[in-house]
Amino acid sequence: MAEVVRTEHLTPHLVRVVVGGPAMAAFEPSPYADSYVKLVMLPAAAGPARPRRPDGRLDLDAVRAALPADDQPRLRSYTVRAFDAGAHELTLDVVVHGDAGVVGPWAAGAHPGDEVLVVGPGGAWSPDPATATHLLVGDASALPAIAVALERLPPDAVGHAVVHVDDPADVLPLAAPAGVRVDWVHDPAALLATVAALPPLADPVSAFVHGEAGAVRELRRHLRAERGVPLERLSVSGYWRRGADDEGWRAGKRAWLAAIEDAEREAGLASA
Q: Angle formed by the axes of helices 188-196 and 213-221, to 10°?
């Protein structure tokens, strides 16, 4: 179990949580810009007496077996904003919308010493420094990954970042090369409109498009059908879906992706 080291309210709806402790000494960071971990949030029913494995780690299987089906631990994925290998400290930026959700309320009220189980990391994408145009698009859930990607771009990189946050007070300063323009929008519909209004993008284009599933689907369609971006140059995924909790979204994500792929085949867009 990792321990909360400190927290910081970056904006009205974004809380930075830094976790560390002895358990993080064995953490091996992923090299990818979209590196993520899963936070395992244990229900109150798990109680303070939690079974451990011989190596001292929490026995999550035993915890699950001891709990009823409707009161199981919940897993939530979060991008690794930074990892300090010397201090063994992992930084996560968490979107908070009042009492909604699982991790948001926890992060808003977290105190040093609070425990949380960290699983991972995973990840698969980093910006290609040789690409001609970088395009980074997403909402607040994708903001940490976009921030990491911008920091990793070469100084002569060219491109655009378009980020949606509902509240203008949630706009953060982002470190980006001079040739990469960062636009903030505050209406979900403006995300697609802003990308569609961009001038022609020099090939090859490398695009990272993540966030709410409905918006991601429209952005993918635009980039594939109207911009001609090949699938192998896209990192695109729905992190969440409006009207569904995380468990519900994960259960339907495979069908969502299959429907997108079917539509692209019908439109004559070849897969990678």
A: 10
